[in-house]
Design brief:
Blueprint (H helix, E strand, L loop, with lengths): L6 E6 L14 H16 L3 E6 L2 H4 L3 H4 L4 H25 L4 E5 L8 E2 L2 H9 L3 E5 L9 H11 L4 E6 L5 E2 L11 E2 L1 E3 H6 L7 H9 L4 E5 L5 H6 L6 E4 L8
Parallel strand pairs: 1-2, 1-6, 2-5, 3-4, 3-5, 6-10, 9-11
Antiparallel strand pairs: 7-8, 10-11
Length: about 240
């Protein structure tokens, strides 16, 4: 069966690469993610990835305490490169050609982010990993995902969560009465302050009519089912009129 999408952007949190560790990168978890991405690529889907750095930055919280916000944000951007490189290595060990593009200059280990080059890589069947966020402090990797998805004309952003099936009315780990939301609009998510992605990223997705699919990355069947067109997790879409402001 033909895949439901031609080009996707997968947003991976740093925690998605952490496994059972308190912080850091679990090699087996990285390989598991790489296997899922490779399977999707082998179906003919063009895959771009934006990585976060929560798994590494957890170990730097003490060092960042009291630090200037911009400096701390730059530390986080560099940490995303430390996640992109092992993911690239795992993908290439599986025979999947991969390029890392960094929004910060780090030419010895990654290409600079160049939009047209990234799109060309995707057209050639290579997985492109976007590192270092937007390259600017005060913006999250969620915003980087929304920005890159719009720039490369991705059809959808797949938001990978850990141990959570999608979007809930509250944090299910803290509120036993939290209920699952199968579908919602960007505006509703912003107004209800739901933890889909940060409000800047949600607004950018809304303005560009970029749908989101929030799903549980821990379930190895979730990603292939989404690519096959099966409804999995929570779908966040733009209703009529929102995109026009």
């Amino acid at each position: 069966m033909a895949p439901a999408f031609k080009r996707i952007l997968l947003k991976l949190s740093g925690e998605a690469l952490m496994g059972e560790l308190d912080y850091g990168t679990d090699p087996e978890r990285v390989r598991a993610v790489a296997r899922q991405v490779t399977d999707v690529r082998d179906q003919g889907v063009e895959v771009a990835i934006v990585v976060g750095a929560g798994n590494i930055y957890r170990g730097m919280i003490g060092a960042a305490a009291g630090m200037d916000r911009a400096t701390a944000d730059y530390m986080g951007m560099v940490a995303t490169v430390l996640n992109a490189l092992p993911l690239q290595d795992a993908l290439e060990h599986m025979g999947t050609d991969t390029r890392v593009q960094s929004a910060l200059g780090i030419s010895e280990v990654a290409e600079p982010y160049i939009r047209r080059r990234a799109m060309r890589h995707l057209e050639k069947g290579r997985v492109v990993i976007f590192a270092a966020g937007t390259g600017n402090p005060f913006f999250t990797t969620d915003t980087a995902a929304a920005l890159r998805a719009a720039e490369i004309h991705a059809e959808i952003i797949l938001m990978a969560k850990n141990g959570v099936e999608g979007v809930y009315t509250a944090d299910p780990a803290l509120d036993p009465n939290a209920t699952f939301i199968p579908e919602i609009t960007h505006m509703e998510a912003i107004e209800r302050r739901l933890r889909v992605m940060d409000s800047t990223a949600l607004a950018l997705c809304m303005e560009n009519g970029m749908p989101l699919n929030v799903f549980n990355m821990d379930d190895d069947t979730s990603l292939p089912r989404i690519i096959s067109g099966v409804r999995v997790g929570t779908l966040v879409t733009t209703s009529g009129g929102e995109q026009d402001g």
